[in-house]
């Protein structure tokens, strides 16, 4: 029951014309309009589609029947015939009725931006969890777009023992999809439960969790590979990696943290995808620190940063401590890079420069482990010694007479939780 461009590309090579509707609402930013269409081209090529041409229409609002104007439909039909195209891809999301009307009028496959992204995710998913999440998103997209017509209106049942109108093929499909969605959600709930158990164990062990987030193709996977030698797929394309990867990273102090690479974000990221990938993206919500990786060389970096902030807000993770990494700084003009500003901490860097990676891990350490303290604790207070080891990074231990001297590093949040028990034993800051 999946809708997929990939099905087209495996049988007949998809040859497409890309269509974008510029409404009064989005016309305010010409740069954004051009970038969105350019991004659609990249998405199509990533999905294995041969892009033949593009078409844009300026219209105050979308047509409820055709999405674009009726005259533009005729113009598009001529262009498709001239180019011998078999697919039309729209830059915005279409309703089920609009898709059916356009398919009937143009006699080609009609695909919208959401469907295209879903197809790429279907191609990229490798783990069982990723495959489940993609299928859930595809079925959630398909369900409200089902409509019976022609042969689909034929009745099933009837006859002896099944008198009455029977059940339409449409209702059978809907019931099947709803059942499958319920099954997938149950499987994802189990995945979520396992993730929560693992996160709980890490929390108990005092292991910090750091999540890499950012617009697709910002360099998150490259950064993970450079920092941890992770065996991850890296390619200069949209959504090169889909399944999240977690690796241990040793800080200069010797403390280990868990660094997780998450799925890249994109403007107009389908809500069904955000919902389906919530189990994975919960890693972001549970992280002690979020590394927001920005492609500094992109002319649309400000817009891309806004998109990431919106998705983080949707996930409820916008209040988390963030460190913005202005990545690919080597590809950005010096004068332009000097103007980069953001609220909160930030680093200008290249994932391929050793000194920048070293600067980054030291910054992560400073944020997570905080300032140094020297604690002098009586030997008989084993409960306090256990608390120190549980909440602090112990740098040095020395036994003097009946006391143990700990030199530790602790972040502000953890110190706030235990300060009432430890403050009387702080001998030096």
Automatic annotation (TrEMBL):
Keywords, comma-separated and alphabetical: Coiled coil, Cytoplasm, GTP-binding, Magnesium, Metal-binding, Nucleotide-binding
Binding locations of GTP: 214-221, 239-243, 261-264, 327-330, 350-352
Coiled-coil residue spans: 167-194
InterPro entries reported for this sequence: G_HFLX_dom (IPR030394), GTP-bd (IPR006073), GTP-bd_M (IPR032305), GTPase_HflX (IPR016496), GTPase_HflX_N (IPR025121), GTPase_HflX_N_sf (IPR042108), P-loop_NTPase (IPR027417)
GO molecular function: GTP binding; GTPase activity; metal ion binding; ribosome binding
Binding site residues for Mg(2+): 221, 241
Hflx-type G domain segment(s): 208-372
Subcellular location: Cytoplasm
Pfam families: GTP-bdg_M, GTP-bdg_N, MMR_HSR1
Nucleotide-binding listed as a keyword: yes
Gene3D superfamilies according to UniProt: 6.10.250.2860, GTPase HflX, N-terminal domain, P-loop containing nucleotide triphosphate hydrolases
Keyword Coiled coil in annotation: yes
GO CC annotations on file: cytoplasm
Cofactor(s) listed in the protein's UniProt record: Mg(2+)
HAMAP family named in the record: GTPase_HflX
Chain's role: GTPase that associates with the 50S ribosomal subunit and may have a role during protein synthesis or ribosome biogenesis.
Family classification: Belongs to the TRAFAC class OBG-HflX-like GTPase superfamily. HflX GTPase family.
Quaternary organization: Monomer. Associates with the 50S ribosomal subunit.
Protein name in UniProt: GTPase HflX
């Amino acid at each position: 029951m999946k809708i997929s461009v990939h099905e087209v590309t495996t049988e007949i090579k998809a040859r497409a014309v890309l269509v974008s509707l510029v409404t009064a609402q989005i016309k305010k930013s010409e740069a954004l309009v051009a970038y969105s269409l350019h991004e659609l081209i990249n998405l199509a090529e990533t999905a294995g589609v041969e892009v033949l041409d593009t078409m844009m229409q300026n219209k105050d609002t979308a047509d409820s029947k055709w999405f674009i104007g009726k005259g533009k439909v005729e113009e598009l039909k001529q262009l498709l015939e001239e180019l011998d195209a078999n697919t039309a891809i729209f830059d915005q999301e279409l309703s089920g009725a609009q898709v059916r009307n356009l398919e009937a009028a143009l006699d080609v496959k009609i695909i919208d931006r959401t469907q295209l992204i879903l197809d790429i995710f279907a191609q990229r998913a490798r783990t069982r969890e990723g495959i489940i999440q993609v299928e859930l998103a595809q079925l959630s997209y398909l369900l409200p777009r089902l409509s019976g017509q022609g042969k689909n209106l034929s009745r099933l049942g009837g006859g002896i023992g099944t008198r009455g109108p029977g059940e339409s093929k449409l209702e059978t499909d809907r019931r099947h999809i709803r059942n499958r969605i319920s099954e997938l959600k149950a499987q994802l709930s189990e995945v979520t439960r396992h993730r929560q158990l693992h996160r709980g164990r890490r929390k108990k062990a005092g292991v910090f969790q750091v999540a890499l987030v950012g617009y697709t193709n910002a360099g998150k996977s490259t950064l993970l590979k450079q920092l941890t030698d992770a065996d991850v797929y890296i390619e200069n394309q949209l959504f090169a990696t889909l399944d999240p990867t977690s690796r241990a990273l040793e800080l200069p102090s010797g403390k280990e943290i868990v660094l997780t690479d998450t799925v890249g974000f994109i403007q107009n990221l389908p809500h069904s995808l955000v919902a389906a990938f919530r189990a994975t993206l919960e890693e972001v919500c549970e992280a002690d620190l979020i590394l927001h990786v920005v492609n500094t060389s992109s002319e649309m970096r400000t817009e891309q940063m806004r998109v990431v902030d919106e998705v983080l807000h949707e996930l409820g993770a916008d209040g988390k401590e963030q460190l913005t990494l202005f990545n690919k700084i080597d590809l950005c003009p010096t004068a332009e890079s000097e103007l980069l500003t953001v609220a909160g901490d930030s680093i200008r860097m290249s994932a391929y420069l050793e000194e920048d990676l070293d600067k980054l891990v030291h910054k992560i350490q400073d944020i997570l482990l905080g300032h140094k303290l020297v604690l002098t604790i009586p030997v008989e207070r084993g409960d306090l010694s256990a608390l120190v080891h549980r909440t602090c990074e112990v740098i040095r231990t020395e036994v003097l007479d009946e006391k143990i001297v700990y030199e530790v590093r602790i972040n502000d949040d953890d110190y706030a939780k235990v300060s009432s028990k430890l403050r009387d034993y702080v001998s030096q800051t």
